[in-house]
Amino acid sequence: MEKNILFMFLRAPFGAIYYTEGMRAVVGMMSGMDEHKVTCAYAGDGAFYCLKGSDKSESAGYVKTIADISETHYYVEKESLDERGISEGDLDETYKVITRDDLARLIAENDVVYDF
Amino acid sequence: MALYLIDLPFAKIGLDTAKRDSDAKVVLVQDGVYADTSGLSDVYAVKEDVEKRGVASRLGGAKIIDYNELVDLIVENKVVNFA
Fold first, then answer.
1. ipTM for this prediction
2. What is the DSSP letter of A57?
3. What is the pLDDT of residues A70-107, one digit of tens each?
4. Best mutation site among A42, A98, A107, A111 for testing chain B: the one with the most B CBs within 10 Å?
5. How far apart are CA B29 and CA B73, in angstroms?
6. I need a labelling partner for B44 at 20 to 30 A (CA). Which of A12, A34, A87, B76 fits?
7. Which residue in B2, B10, B16 is closest to A107 by CB distance?
């Protein structure tokens, strides 16, 4: 049975493998028999991954596979950006800026919430 | 309506997000028992973590629960993990 799943990426990338293991889990959720609908939201220190210059090569394959399966939304939370002095101009265009209110709404709307 | 598991590293974003959920249940685990939960009404704290840290008198209105009760809460609710 298809579900709506929110993946929250809360941890700073590159210090651990959460950021890329999370993407692998997204592929698994989308390409399995149930073909779940997935949304990705970067918040907290996870927002650092959304910088233009961050090395996304390790998860590029997952991102491509996800794009082949279906359109997926990648969000980054504004309050987390502000807390870390990151401006929208610093961001990779893949990531759309949302507010904490939007994040709370995504949490409420999705059937399941995972964090990486 | 969701159950928010909160530990200290993600306490700020977790508690701030939970405040936007009018039916939020919040459970403080591990170092999360140090967090300030003012503004939230349905708060629990894990007994072992509270006793080890000696913060029972600093919990405000949080209800102290044991691991069995924590498992019940997890099974009965949609869980959002900020721990």
1. 0.85
2. H
3. 889 999 999 999 999 999 999 999 999 999 999 999 99
4. A107
5. 13
6. A12
7. B2
Residue in A3, A7, A9, A10 to test binding to B, most B beta-carbons within 10 Å: A10
- Per-residue pLDDT at B39: 94
Tell me the pLDDT tens digit for each residue of B2-37: 999 999 999 999 999 999 999 999 999 999 999 999
Minimum Cα–Cα distance from B83: chain A residue:
A115
3-state secondary structure of A56: coil
Q: Which strands make up the sheet holding A37-42, listed edge to edge? A: A96-98, A73-77, A37-42, A4-9, A112-115
Mark out the alpha helices in chain A (DSSP H runs): 18-31, 57-69, 78-83, 100-109
Contacts of A113 (CB under 8 A, 6+ apart): A5, A6, A8, A107, B2, B78, B79, B80, B81
